[in-house]
Design a protein that fits this description.
The chain is built from 13 helices and 16 strands. The strands form three sheets. The protein has a seven-stranded mixed beta sheet, with helices on both faces. α3 runs antiparallel to α10, α7 packs parallel to α8 and α11 packs parallel to α13. The chain starts with 7 loop residues before the first helix and ends in a 5-residue tail after the last helix. The protein binds pyridoxal-5'-phosphate. Pyridoxal-5'-phosphate binds next to α5.
Length: about 450
Amino acid sequence: MTNDYRNAEATLTNDRAHVFHSWSAQAQINPVPIAGAEGSWMWDFDGNRYLDFSSQLMNVNLGHQHPRLVAAIQEAAGRLCTIAPIHANADRSEAARLIAEVAPDGLNKVFFTNGGAEATENAIRMARLHTGRPKVLAAYRSYHGSTSGSITLTGDPRRWPSEPYVSGIVHFSGPYLYRSSFHATTETEECERALAHLDEVMMFEGPQNIAAVILEPVVGTNGILVPPPGYLQGVRDLCDRHGIMLIADEVMAGFGRCGEWFAIQHWNVTPDLICFAKGVNSGYVPLGGVIISDPIAATFADRVYPGGLTYSGHPLATASAVASITIFHEEGVIDQARALGDACGPALQKIAARHPSVGEVRGIGAFWAIELVRDRSTREMLVPYNAAGADAAPMAEVVGACKAGGVWPFAHFNRLHVTPPLTTSLDDLHTGLAVIDEALEVADRYAAG
Ligand SMILES: Cc1ncc(COP(=O)(O)O)c(C=O)c1O
């Protein structure tokens, strides 16, 4: 086998000729060829190093090339590369046991998928079949995947080109005090009013028609929105009142990202279904799934579950999940995420104080957002909602300044997200934040004092 395509030129030439990229106008992108990565760092073929503050779409919670995780995959490949889902498999069984062990009590079965979209897709199928009801409520400012059901659930502009798609999905507004849909000025007001709104949406839709509410317990791409105290319990209570299933989409927020195994555990709320992917095995092999409550699992004890995937519980993927969860336990990864949060919060507050372009910083664990504005008093966004092209130029400049300083950030609309691997050292965290601090001077040029 020849390796002579492993250089910048061949990588880019073949990419531009043959690779069709996600979410892109193909002629307008210029992907940076990455030569390698380790821990919290990645580098290109010219030796430029970047601190990975995006964790590859909030994915590599254990960092790049974690040696124990790599070894586990290598061993699994030597043992058994694939086996159909109809068989029992040691790695799949153990991965399911370990996942159920860290999930809230009463969720004991795992349906494995290849990623997050298939997880949300199957979760709503399970909820609909379990309740016999057609509708699902999903939040605006959310992302749930790009397959037909999951993109319909999604409450951001990525849904628009696919509409109309799956019927019976209705959107509601969740809490977001900084840009309150409810004219609230305190977290308590925001919580009460967001719950009253959801209650009203349920009334208008007919609660007896609603199978599930799906939400990201801490909203990810759409803003790192940490719910006010009491909100998730309030949603749970509304669901319980009407026999509605609560689906926690933890694809991004789960597996330690928020400093708990699952974000919803911060608020001691137990959902009926949990969707996971990404951080379960740091995406080294594609894997996602749905963790299922005992009553929903019982629905399919003597009734066929009408869904499946050739790769459900793939041995390489589940062996890597076993290794990943073992690493979480043995290397104190959840504690590391909390320590990152303890350091990141105050450091970001200091950055906010220095820059007129910073409207708000918020987050939890290793999951933080810097919201950029043109004017702190009006909260006008640095770039408009869903801006593209010239309208988005100020954000592109900020991102460019971060990259020039050696930090690869995640940016969405008018926000920079600070979401490094959970294993990032505090030194690296502060190095990266110093680069962002400097890059924000670019944003300040657009901001009123
Ligand atoms: C909360 C959430 N749900 C679902 C998905 C979809 O996951 P995937 O891209 O693996 O299909 C994502 C992806 O970013 C996500 O953040």
